[in-house]
Every structure is written in structure tokens, then in C-alpha cells.
Amino acid sequence: MSTPATAAATAAPASVEIKAPESLKKPPQCIRPCTVGRAECHYYNRTDEVSGVERDNDFRYPKKLPSKEDVIAEAQRCLKCQDPPCCRGCPSQVRVDQMMGHLSEGNWYAAAKVLFTHNPLGYTCGLLCPTNHACRGACTLNNSMLGAININTCQAATAEVFAHMNIPQIRNPAIPETANLNAKIAMVGCGPASMSCATYLARLGYKNITIMEKQPFAGGIPAIEIPQFRIPYQVTAFEVRMMQDLGVQIQYNQALGRDFTLQALKDQGFDAVFVGVGFPAANSIPVFKKAGPLSNVWNSKDFLSAVANATKPGMMPAATPLPRLDGHVLIVGAGDVASDVCLTAFRCGAKKVTMCFRRGHVDMRCNEDEAEGLRREKVEFISCGSPKSLRVVDGKVTALEVDVMNKELDGKYVVDHGQNRWIECDYIITALGSQIGADVFAPATIDQKTWSIACNKETMQCTGLDWCYTGGDCAGSAAIIEAVNDGKVAAWNMHRMLCQKFSIPTPPICMQVPPFMTPVDLVSTGIQVGPLRFVNPFGLASGPGTENAIMIKRAFKAGWGWAVTKTFQPDKDMLPNLTPRIVGVGRANEFQNIELNSERNMSYWLAEIPKIKKEYPDRVLIAAIHCKGTLDEWKDLATRIAATGVDGLQINMGCPNLGEHAARPFVRPWPATALLVLFFSIHPALLSVPIPLARPLISSPPTLQTDIVRETLAAITSVVHIPCMPKLGPHQGDVVALARAAREGGAWGISGINTIPGVYRVNPDASVWPSVGGVWAFGGVSGAQTKPFALHAVAAIKAALPDMPILACGGIQGPASALEFIHMGAGALQICSAEMQWGQGLVDTLQDGLRYHLYSQGREDLRSWNGQYPPQLRAARLPVKFGPFEAKQRAVRPAAPPATTTHPPPFPPNPHPSFPLCSLCSFDQAEIEECLHEAQPAHRAAEMVQRFTQTARPVATPVTLEHEVGRSLPQMRPFGDLDTAIKTISEVDMTRCVGCGRCQMACMDAGYACISFDRTTRQPKISPACKGCGLCVAVCPVHCISTVPAPAKKN
């Protein structure tokens, strides 16, 4: 299926000359008249507005699809507010903040888990939900210049990625077996409300749920009345499949009032019934009722249903012909359905589409986002026009007469008598809403005021019927997301009713949302590290998050596997903390602090540690201790703490914040002269600046001696018999030598790295931040900026001492970075800075991300993804066009030979024949061509539907966490062993290149001048002389450059 624009581009001869403005040959700095500027602007125009006339028979998704990088960047803008208003604004209360937090770290599985926990139809709602009046409208960032987060786009992308994972939904195996779970439950209609209700009931453990559906397919209104270009049927099929994963049964071709009644279901032994049918009949007005049937007049329900049957592959057993329109099509109505009809009319052949409605533009019922889509496709508008009469010729309408409406000061619209107009047209489609139709709902009653089923809106229980519940259109809900929430509310209250009926303890009125679960959630993340068993490898590092016992208990309750107390010391060594003492950029996870040890005294920790261990016996608790005294004082401190039942001791011997407060007998200060030489070599201009130092460099970071580490650990391990480990950092010297000395002293493992001494910011007035009373000292830098140093330390220690456990710390902020440390050899991980920024809930994304990785390594298809994003989606995100500029470029490129394929219709030629296609994806030429111009052709859409409805699911055998520890180390080699004979060059994937030229600038100014840039076509070209340094790969903002093996040189 090719559009006229595509066909024109394909047919264009290769000899067409690009008429670029002559001014493009001059540097952009040259002075130019406005006429030249306008010509260049017109030439480079990339505005992607396609008239509806060009979309004849084109049912592809019309909006630009986000790439992986787009979604992650958008999610990183989210503030993750306390009591987020976006969640309050969502009718189904999706935890948008949590979803965005997972997405910002590339944790697609965890984001999908949050989404589907609160909204089983999250994919549908991501495409259709009017978020500008819900979550997006409530977003805190509406107050900013960039505006609210594009929540619906991120939501749809999350669901799409999860759909490609092909992971089934499962029941929670921990649900106890009770009598009520065998109750028979019937759902009437398989639309959003019923699917939501059935899903939540199945998650609660109910096993006997049956849905009666009138159509031969499932999905309700999104399937039968919303066009394919807005919601492809594979989306509906995916969500139906997820529901069926839980054991829900569907009986097709069963209509209420025709094949059964509500009372009949009750008599057949169903303990509860949910009615979730859509409004089946279209509204009309007298002018159309009087005219009777006319061959060229449709109502929206009949028209959209006919189009859906013809254009949604996999939905109907046999597709029906697409309704064909021509000429001028007049749409009567201005709601969301009317907007769908307008856009669909263009795709059915209309040459002109006009929307006529009785109100003014400012009062259109159509959502603002949808109205913008109408404008972009060039739909005409006639406002303030109320239909009055029809001109009928030979059984066909040729014109519609409308009265002009005036808006009064009170906001009411009244007919302006004496003013009317005739609108000539070839077809009329009315979109005036829908109605409940025939009353087939007995014994449920119809509310005569709202013309919906009478029910208690708090519980969705039908009035007077304790066994019958309702939701969706027939209950008066106006949007799909509201129908989803109706089903959720009804499911919980139905559950409470059934518990009472079967004499089961009744749960509270406040709903406890049953979570979305998959086999991934059953994967164990526990690991045995020596004598310590961690329920999961994620622990809180010694820091502000473990200042007291209450915070540690809250962390364990939240799911953290272990914790290290904030460093404490004998009471005689306690020091007061400074204020302020923490600075940084939280959203970048970068901090510096001049904080000292715990402000709690020794007796506090001696009393609280046993209480923590008693309440959480399965969690590992390690005490971080520090002492300024002799070896005997170290022994006494360690003995007293070990007696509390703590699992291990962390020996803090080199915190950069301690300075002169460190353990004096065991510290050798950095030479002051060396520091001065280093300082002035960096800032030679400061040699003439007088620097008053009352106490010269008194806060210089200490350097540990290996013999001191050995002696200290030997003294401590001689009196205690629990795991002991020093906390080391790169500022303390050679970490490998220090770790080796620690092992010789009896240390069980290594904790590292500590914060790194640094200066965070120097202000223009020469003041340094943080400062106390105008003076400053070196502080400890932590967070993402320390990760490269921490990874180096972990890898170096593990390579030198492979049998020594490492409890790693330093820049871990998400599952991806956590996995990096595990692959470098860390058995357990400590998090501090990221927890300071995002709170203790961070453990959820860490856990879910690690579980998904272990699961995916047990499935061959997922193992090849190299992360959580499917490579087939990366290929599908190739840009279809870049507006008029790209259309001109495509028209003049030489055509490639047609691809050999059995898939109809034929694919367009390669638009970039002189450049290689994406070398990162394992797709053949035909598949890439298809992605370029046919985002979702009919045969591929049918394949997706078949995939989402197939019975077999892939089976995974997850690997253990021990299997992943140190996986990267076998590939580590000394620098001198790297093979200089291996040569690579850079390769540009022109299907993704946006023409910014950043690669050429970098290569010219800091590389080997091997990239040229054509200003006319805005395409970079890499010279065969490329050295393969990788600079262009690093600076490319859209990740369209990769390094590939260099071609063999010819003799």
C-alpha cells in the first residue's frame, strides 16, 4: 500500500536536478537579503504536514513515532513529584511518576509493570486517552517553558515495547485458595470496562470468568469504531491476550437481549454479572429522520464500523470492502467521533472534507489535540451552523441548509433568524453521539435523566441488584480511561460482595490494587556471598539514608536487601556536623558533601541493631565503624558491635571528609608541597595570588599505607568472627595493593569505593560551594560522576583477587548501571546518592530491571536484544519523511533494483542507495525498505495480530545472579595486549541521520578531517581514509553512526 507521495517519489527520474538556492554555496555568516533568507527557509522546510487528500487508502499511524532515546529523554524531564498531580488527574490513578522513573533509566519492563498494574488497557489509553484533560493537564511542568511531559506518548511506547517482549501475564501464586475464588462470574460485552473488570478479578484469584461478546471479535468500541490509523487491531489483540493469560474465557456472537438476558445469567448459576456494553445506536436529529434512508448519507457508527471491518487485519474472519467516497464530504458534528470520521473520510477517497457544527470554534466538543490533527490534514470548518433541511435529488443529498447560530452573552446559542446558507456536498456523515438503544437490561433499570443504567457510582453496583454491576458507556462514562476505572472499581466491590456471600473475611472498602505479574517477577535475585545470604543484592550504603534505625527499617520494608549503618564511633570521638554540608545537582545524581559520621551515640546503635535484626532476620545489616585511637580501641569497638548480632563490619579508614579527624596513627598526609605544585600547574595565573593559610592544607585527603590496613584488619579480625571489610577509594592509593593488604590482615571482602575528594563549584566571585562561614574545605564527591572510577576499582580488585567478595558502591542509579558493577565482579551493591535523590522506592526499578535481565538471559529471542529495547522497533522507527525538504531529496536519488520479495505490494526503492543501511539490525533489505515507507503494511499488521493471539508462549529458564557476576572480566586485557592490527571505520546509517553535521564538525576540529558535509543535501559522507577513532560515534546526537570493520586493503 503506497501513498501518492511515495509513488511519486518512486517514479521520479534520477536525472532531476535539485534547485538549491545559490546562497547555499556561501558561508551562513554572509549578509543576505530577506528574499534569500525566505528562499533558504523554503528549501529546508521540514514541517511534516500532509493533506488528508494525500492519505487516500493510507491507514498507517499518522503521528511521528518516538525512538528509544526520545522516550527516555522525555521521561528524564519528569520531576517525580511528591503526591504527583498527574496521578491524581488520571481517572485510573496510574502512577505516572513511577513509570517515568523506570523509563528514565531505560527499564521498560518495570515501567510496563506499573502501567498495567493500574490500567490493563494501558496500550489503548496511551494512543487514545485525552491526556491534556487528565494526567498531562495536571502535570507540574505545565508551569515551565517546555510544558508538560508527553505522558501518552511515553505510555504507548512502554506498552509497545512490552508487547514485543511477548511475556505472559500470570496470577499471583501466593494468593491463598478460598471458596469465593470458584464463583461463576459473567461479563456482558468485551469492551474496555469488561476487560478491566475481568482482569482485576482474575488477578484477585477468580478462576471462572466468562465474557459474552456480540461480535465475532473482542475489543469493543476501540476495535469496531476507532480507525486503524488511530489504534491498530494488534493493540486490542495484545490486551485481550493478556486478559486471556489469566484464564478468562470469551464466548463470541452472544448478544444481550437476543441470545440471553441478565436474569437468565443469574438463573444459570452465575454468582455475579458485570454489564459493560457500549451504546449500540447512533443519535439523529429531525432533519435526517424525516428524510429517511438516503444512499449517500451515513451515520458515524455504520461508517466507522464498515471501515474498521475492511482495514483491521486479523479482526474479522474475512475482510469486507472499504467504503469509497469521492468529492466533497460533509461531516455534521464536532466531537471526537466526528474528528475520526473526518480523517477517515479522506482515507476513503474524499477530495474535500468539511466539519459543520452548531457551536463556535471555541466551544467545539472535539479534544484540542484532535482538532489540531484536523487542521494539519486540511479539514474545513463551518461553525455556528445548525442543520435545517436537505436538498435531495434522485434519492441522494446534494446540499444541506443550515441556520446561522449566534452565541449570547450567557453562553447559549440561538438561531439568528433570517440568516442561513446552503452547503453543497456529495456525501453526508452524521456524528451526533450515540444512545443506549433498546432496553434489554432488565432487571437492571434505566435512569431516565442520564439514559444510562442506574447504579451506585461509588461501587458501580446496579440499583436494587446486589449481584449485578456495570461500567463504561452504559453507565454514563465518557472516555475509555473512565470505563477502565469503572471496571476496576466494580471488580473490587464485586470481590467484597462475593467474600461476604461465601463467608470470607471482607477486605476494606479502600481498594488494594492487585499487581500486574509475569514470570519475570518470580525470578530470584538472591545471592550467596561467602557466609552472607542476600535476598537481593541492593543495599543502602553508609550515608544519610541509614542515619537511624527507623530509616533502615523503612528501607527493609520497601524491599532493600541489606544496609550499612551510617559510620559511628566511640562517644569520645564524636564530632558535630557542619551546615550546609550537601550540594549538587540532584537530577543528574551528582553530589558533594562535607558530612561527618553519625550523630547517634554508641549506646543508641548498641540498642537498635538487635531490634533491627529481630524484626528483619532475613536482611543483612552491616555496621560501619570508625576509630581515631589505638589498635586496642579498634578491638574494643569491634567487639562491642559484633555482640549485637550484626552480620558484618565495615571499617571506615579513609573518608575524605574526616581530614585531620581521621585516625592519626594510621594516616600519612599528602605532602603539602606536592599539592601546591599540582594546584599551581593547573592554575599558573594564581601564582601571584596571596593565599592565607592559617593551617596549611589541614584538610588534605589522607593516603593509606598498606601496612596500616593490614595491621588494623588483623587486629579487628583477631577478636571478632564475622565478615569484616575496609571501605576503600582511589584517593587512598593503589586500591589493589590496599585490598591485598586487607586480605592479608584477615578481611573477608572489600567495600568500595568511598567518596572521592573534590571541589564541586567555584562561583564567579571566587567563593567555593559548599562553604561554612565563608571558608571551605575539600569534600567527598559522589553519584554518577564517580562511576568510572568505581568500575575501575571493582574490576581491578576482582581481577587481582578473584576469590575476594566486593560490595560495590559509586554511581549506581538504575538497573543498567547496577548490572555494569555485577558484570565487573561485584556480588552486592550499595546505593546512596540515587536513593537521596529518588527515595527508597528506587529499589523497585533496581529489582525489576535485574529480574528482567536474568529472565531474558534464559530466552534466546530476548537475549539477542542487548538490553530491554527490541531491535525490530528500532528499525520500525525509521523516519517516513522529513517534510518537503526530504521529499525533494528522495525524488532525485537514483532508484535501486526492486527488492525480491513475496510480500504484496512491491516495496519502494532504497532512498539512500549509496549508503549502507543500519548494520546494527539483523533485517534484510526488503524489511528495511518496508520500514522506510510502509510503517505497518497490511500483511505485517496481520502477522502482529496473529502473534498476539497465538496460544504458545516462549518458555524461559532464567539464569542465576551468580552466573552474571564477573561476566565482563574474561575479556579484560592489559593495554599492551590489545591488537593494533584490528582496524575499523565509521559508518552512517542514513535512514536515521537528521543532517545536523555535528560529526563533521568534530572530525574536522578534533579528529582526522575524514567527514565531509553537503549543505545542499545535508548529508555527511565518510572518507575511506577514516581512522575509526570513534569520535563521530560519541558526538552523534541521534546515534546513527557506528564503527564497522574496515574493508581489506587491495594489493
Automatic annotation (TrEMBL):
The keyword Chloroplast does not apply. It comes from the Eukaryota. Keywords: 4Fe-4S, FAD, Flavoprotein, FMN, Iron, Iron-sulfur, Metal-binding, NADP, Nucleotide-binding, Oxidoreductase, Repeat. Pathway: Pyrimidine metabolism; UMP biosynthesis via de novo pathway; Amino-acid biosynthesis; beta-alanine biosynthesis. Gene3D superfamilies: 3.30.70.20, Aldolase class I, Alpha-helical ferredoxin, FAD/NAD(P)-binding domain. Its EC number is 1.3.1.2. Residues 984-1016, 1018-1046 form the 4Fe-4S ferredoxin-type domain. Its cofactor is [4Fe-4S] cluster; FAD; FMN. InterPro entries: 4Fe4S_Fe-S-bd, 4Fe4S_Fe_S_CS, Aldolase_TIM, Dihydroorotate_DH_cat, Dihydroorotate_DH_CS, DPD_II, FAD/NAD-bd_sf, FAD/NAD-binding_dom. Belongs to the dihydropyrimidine dehydrogenase family. This is dihydropyrimidine dehydrogenase (NADP(+)). It comes from Paratrimastix pyriformis.
